[in-house]
Structures are given as C-alpha cells and as structure tokens.
Amino acid sequence: MKKNVFTLAAVIAALFVSLNCLAQDGKVNNFRIKRGTNVSHWLSQSEQRGEARRLHIQEDDFERLHDLGFDFVRIPIDEVQFWDEKGNKLPEAWQLLKNALDWSRKHNLRAIVDLHIIRSHYFNAVNENGSSANTLFTSEKAQQDLINLWYQLSDFLKDRSCDWVAYEFMNEPVADEHEQWNQLVAKVHKALRKVEPQRTLVIGSNRWQGHETMKFLKVPEGDKNIILSFHYYNPMILTHYGAWWTPLGLYKGKVSYPGVLVSKEDYDKAPEAIKADLKQYTEQVWNIDKIREQFRDAIEAAKKYGLQLFCGEWGVYEPVDRELAYNWTRDMLTVFDEFNIAWTTWCYDADFGFWDQQRHTFKDRPLVELLMSGKKLGE
What confidence category does residue 124 fall into, taking pLDDT thresholds of 50, 70 and 90? Predict the structure, then answer.
C-alpha cells in the first residue's frame, strides 16, 4: 500500500513538472499559432469598469472564436487597469484576465498576454504630445518599473502551460534610437528568464513594430522560445480611411486597390495639410507584390534567428469600402500563407472588428469567411 502511495505521488509530481513552465528549461515549447484575433478595447484602451467591463467579454466569445476556426488570441492589457498610481493591484482586472485565460484553454485557444500601454510609454504619445511624453527610454526607474510589472504578471501566470500562454512584454515601442529598444529588450529578457526560463516571449522591433525596422532588432541569442512580431497597416490611406485619429483621415476622395491608390484629380482637391503624406499614394502601385516587398525585412529577420514570424496587428477600419478591404485582406492572407506567418487581426469587436457585441451578431460576416479561407459560416 505504501508503495502504491509513493507511486501515485511520483506520477502526480511528474505530471506537475510536465505542466509547470518553470521546470522545462531548455525545451522548445509547443506554442504553435497560425490565425487569431486581438481581444482589444476590453482590458486595454477602454474606460469601461465594473459590470460593463465584466459583461463585455464572456466565455461565449472564446467559444465562438474557436468554432469559427481561430486557434489563438492576443489579449492587450494596460497598466492603468491592473495597477493604481501607487502600484497597488486592482483585483477585478486580474480576475478578468484569469477568466480569459481559463476560457481560452477550455476552448483550445492559445493566448498571448500583451502589455499594451504602460504609464511610462504610450505608442501614440509621440504623435499627440511629443517624444518627451514617454520616459521609458530615458529613465532607469521606468525600465525597472516595467520589469517589476512583469515580475508580478509572471507570479500570477507562471503556472500556465508554456504550450498555451505566451508573453508580449511591450507593445509598439517608440524609441528615438533603435539601440535604446535593443538594450531594453536585453534587460527585460534577462529579467524574465530568471523567473521563467521557458516561457515563449513575443518581441517586436522599434518604431511601432514596423516591418521596416525589423532589420535593426537585436534578438537575444540562443533562445528558441521567442516569436518575432511586426504590425502592418499599409497602405494607411486605405486601412485608415476616414480615421479621426490620423491626419490622413481628413482625406475624403476616392481610394483604389490594387493599383495607384489616389488619382491626381483627387490629390489636387485634398486639404493642403495632408498633401505631403498623401503624395506617395499618387505615385506608387500597391498590390500583393508591394506587400511581399515590404514584408522582406521581417521575413529575413525570422530566417536569421530561426524563429517564427507573427503579424500581431493588421486590419481595416470599419467604414472603409468593403470591396477594397476584402481585396487587401485577400492579398495579406496569401502572403501570410506563402511565408508561414502567424497573425492576429485588429480586432474582434471594436472599430476594426467583425463582431457586434451589442447586437450579438456579425457586423462583417464576409470578412470572417475570408479570414477562414472562404469557408461559409453556419448560422
């Protein structure tokens, strides 16, 4: 009887080791991803709190995403939702994150926890308030604060399987110099590897995780549990047509795709304030070959380091002409497939999304069918 007790204890211990990320140093994780979406504007970029936030995303959302054919989600979170200004935890957000990861696992969706905005760094601050609004790259304290946030997140998440949960330790860095970001990557990577040697980490390049800056990114050597990430919204005149938060949103003329996007006639009628940014779209041909060309640096970086490549954000603003949106989306998906690039659309249910939470129905059913490779969705 005693032998059986010891045998059972050994089995339980072995099972715990197999599930515990901390005990698998040196193993390459089975964090395999292909197509997903961002569960955005919930624990990030949202003023919702209390019941409205609790009801915004529920288990049926994760079940729906799995049933549609998605295999993972990216979950953006913001410092202000998880910690107050004194660094105290705000319990409800932590519970909602736990729920989200429990629901993800239950419905066979892998998950990337993305620290989207922190108090010392906001990806759009340089456009709104100038570079001085971000202190992260000039303050040792701010950098240590970022590491401390991740120590607390790690303590909360570390028992989650490395095959099912990954960390993106910062979204869209905007440093004046690429080397500032490279140094911070090395610092945060070293700190996280001390507490979680095995966890898959998602790392992007400087300047909004742009494809064009991937060649400047220095990736920690010898760590195969890293996924390289870039974001892509080009051409902005198409994907952000009419968007109030970008100057190009002032353009009200016609846009074409594929081909030359803006005619000379429409350019001449455009507001003078945006003509400098608009001119490129009257000269360049945009099509699938252009997308392939712009992806090249990201693809080469992934080959150089032998790592998976991931496009963490891409999508089209809801008011954009749907035929144009579908043409661009189709080309994006083709290139993703050609180069084995995983992706998460921006996003699930906000202003680039396909699901209407208020009406509990699709607001863009053809888009979802296209994302699922033309699959016709059942009612």
Answer: confident
